[in-house]
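Incident log, support desk, overnight shift.

02:14 A customer reports that sequence design results differ from what the structure should imply. Their input is reproduced verbatim below. On-call engineer (initials T.W.) acknowledged and began investigating.
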């Protein structure tokens, strides 16, 4: 079961920082669903995930200024 991280209302870089903490506590192969409304997160979260070896399994805009990204923890 995926862990859900609700960061709507948090200004950048807090959605990314919260994601880093959550991923550190997860096992390889587990998924983290991040809901956020910080425009900068649309670039910073995928960039960080790629750098760390995590897979983006879904990335979609869910509202006029809201997004959801699903990360699968890598090695």
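02:41 Re-run completed on a clean worker. Output:
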């Amino acid at each position: 079961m995926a862990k859900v991280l609700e960061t709507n209302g948090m200004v950048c870089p807090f959605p990314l920082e919260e994601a880093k903490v959550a991923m550190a506590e997860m096992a390889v192969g587990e998924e983290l669903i991040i809901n956020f409304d910080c425009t900068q997160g649309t670039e910073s979260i995928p960039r960080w995930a790629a750098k760390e070896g995590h897979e983006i399994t879904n990335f979609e805009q869910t509202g006029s200024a809201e997004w959801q990204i699903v990360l699968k923890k890598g090695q």
